[in-house]
Amino acid sequence: MVKIAQISCGTDYSGVQKEIEKAASTFGAEITIPEADLDYIDEAYHKFGFNAASSSVRLMIARAMSLVEGKSDADAVFIASCFRCAEAALVRNEVRRFIQQNTNLPVVTYSFTERTKADELFIRMEALSTIVARKSLLAREKQEGLTLGIDSGSTTTKVALMENDKILGTGWVPTTDVIASANEAMEQAFEGSEYKLDDVDGIGVTGYGRITIGKHFDAGLIQEELSVNSKGAVYLAGHQKGEATVLDIGGMDNKVITVNDGIPDNFTMGGICAGASGRFLEITARRLGVDITELGPLALKGNFQKALLNSYCIVFGIQDLVTSLAAGETKQDVAAAACYSVAEQVYEQQLQEIDVREPLIQVGGTSLIGGLVKAVSTVLGGMDVIVPENSSHIGAVGSALLVSGIGEKKDFGAKKLSGDSNASRMPR
Prior knowledge:
Elements: E1 2-9, H1 11-14, H2 17-26, E2 29-32, H3 38-48, H4 55-68, E3 76-82, H5 86-102, E4 107-112, H6 118-133, H7 135-138, E5 146-152, E6 156-163, E7 166-174, H8 178-190, E8 202-207, H9 210-217, E9 221-222, H10 225-237, E10 243-249, E11 254-260, E12 263-270, H11 278-288, H12 292-300, H13 314-326, H14 331-349, E13 360-363, H15 370-379, E14 385-386, H16 394-403
Parallel strand pairs: 1-2, 1-3, 3-4, 4-12, 5-8, 8-9, 10-13, 13-14
Antiparallel strand pairs: 5-6, 6-7, 10-11, 11-12
């Protein structure tokens, strides 16, 4: 059983503790609390050197010190504090940094509310458990055989067909019915190849629809997207050795993942509002009367400083957008401002809570929006940003890569879409 050390403040008072334990147990993990008696709390507090007023925060520091000094044992670390507490937020970040500098344990941080439920924590606990339990698989650097990767995302479904370290074909369709969308994307990936589904050695799936698709196709790998996406990103970018940071600004949530030798060791996900997501850029493109594929080139021609969008909220962000256009600002400047607004919010909400390690690899569908990539570089002080080829297919590529390490041949061609009108479209 994977032991996850919980270093937190306020989880008992808020009623969140039982939700944390429920989320961990769902993935075969056990929550443990590092030991710290009263004398050790004072000792650890002075060693740490952070002047905290709250006794609960001091206990949080002591538990982190206990873990680092080997007084407590764990396989991974979950650090959490209430989003309403500024002091705890500061300590949460310092404790995370302290643990990462002094251990090799994977870490995830979380800012909870009194309404936090177990299902909001699932992907974080699953990722921690996966990193520990499947570390040797995540270290895989070459794809072998003929494998298929499926990424069933919240807005789009991506598929990658790979053979011996080469991408033979890809598919990309909007996610509607998860099975039907997977089949349509698979059809695209197989098109032009000499193969059919029953030739495949293994299928790997990730994304929001991974459980449904994985069960339907009897996939050899069903894995959360944090570990899969980071693996796919460093693989495509050619940075599987050393450190890197992966940034995925999605349609529903954002992910920032730090990676060391191809294995994630810290990540954040989420965001305060859709104003920091790809959804806001879709709405911006629609309001400007351009396709989303045209928004990036348009933004590259503009100056974000001429049409500032200052709101965190997607609703008020659109209001700022409309106001700027009404004031006579150009479409180019508004497009640039929208990209900069998203990048700035991602920085404030997530990037500044994590030690960004170069290179920064930007992936996902929004990585194809050149204006956003430029904006991310700008908010990070001009840092070079890598957008690898096939950056929008990192989940599918990562799944195809990892499943090739399992080596279990199955008769995937026997799988049908029973009762589904799109069954005839499935690759045969």
